[in-house]
## 1
Amino acid sequence: MSLPRRRGLTAHAATTGVDRACRMLRLPAIRSPFSEVAETAEREQMSCLGFLAEFLLAECDDWARRRSERRIKAAGFPRVLTLTSPP
């Protein structure tokens, strides 16, 4: 079953819809910078496909970063070592 397409949404209604959808779908990397990136895309006359690709790639990058952090935390390493810290 598909939902009917809505045409003629105001900018505020569209932004609110994107925010709610991102919350429901748990897409924090898209939700937080959406307004700024949308304004930049409009100014640069980015295509819908380019706009969508930018956001999906940002979400994938954020997802991979959080996954890596979870794995490191789950590994239970005794302490964090960096190249600059003494052994």
## 2
Amino acid sequence: MQSGSREIVTPFRPIPLDVPEGMKPNEFFNSTENLNDLVHNNGLLQNPEGLLLYRKALGHSNEFDTSIIYNTSRSILDPLGRPVRRTQVPEAVKNVWNRMNQILFDYMLEQYPDPDRHLVLAGEASLDATWPLTSPGVPSIRMLHNHFIVFDKQALRDAPLADASNPNLTDGGQHSLFQQYMRDVYRAFFDELDLEILRPCTPGSCKIAITGYPQGLPSWEVTGDADSLKEVRFWKEYDTILKGFIDFYRAFFSQVSTRNAPLPRDIYFPALVEEKLQFNNDFLKSAKMVRDRCIKDAKYANSIRWQPAFKQLIYRNDAGKLIVTISQNSIGNAITELLGVVVKRVPDAEAYGQAEPALIEKLLEARRRLVDADLGEGIATPHWGT
């Protein structure tokens, strides 16, 4: 079998939403009206903390696919002012968020115990206001949400190879700015973070053999496997990885924007940034290279996300170990592409209807476990009850 990124076809039932005249679809998808539809037609569970579990109507996989969104659509009407990553969530909400993540991941591992048969993953993508609303690749819902997805590995083996030039697949590979010019600086920076449960992966051990991904990304094995996800310490370290990434990203693009820029405000590890980045010649040389190109190349400058853009996920590798990884200079928003899976969604109500009963059965059982753990109350829709 040839290893390489795969493109799978996922049928969906067309969503009967009418976008008001004069609005672009991604502008409407950020509206409170659209979120109402998400709750009433696809909502599974919600809680007082504002976390909503829902079925992905435009899903990645019809084997298992659900999301939790921090639904601030009524409390924060400005889409650009909503929390879009874990570090912006109140502690009380994050505590509930982490418990929901742990229970859902545990359920996926229980239902799909064989790493040879199923690829299991969960994680979030950056939804920061890093591009204009009308740009390609801008998130359809500008609020923090996690994905919980299972792919059948035989379906991946049978799928055709994806187009290697797909820009979303170059996110963390040889074309990445971080990977190509600052690989050693980047990894040395992460090595200074205070991690106990998360242990750096040995080279090659984290890849999925079918796709050969992830490529070039820093990755960590979860010592203690799934039991560690029940520990507060794990989620603190998961946040530490994200905080370290954000500091690195902001420090770098501050130097790109302004030569000899001071430390960015409100960074998490100021001493580490000062010692390992602001006095590192390779780091600053790379910033100068990008700055010089931005000055001469308007198209290149316009393509840069000046604020942190990332995808962070937990997945199970071929050996059955849980792995944490984070992207670098994220281009697209499909979190599956970090593992080399390109999803081509096609409208096909009949094909989706064949997969829907088994999918809904699993989603309702996952919901039951969250309700039992006092993590929310079920939502009734035209497709299921509470």
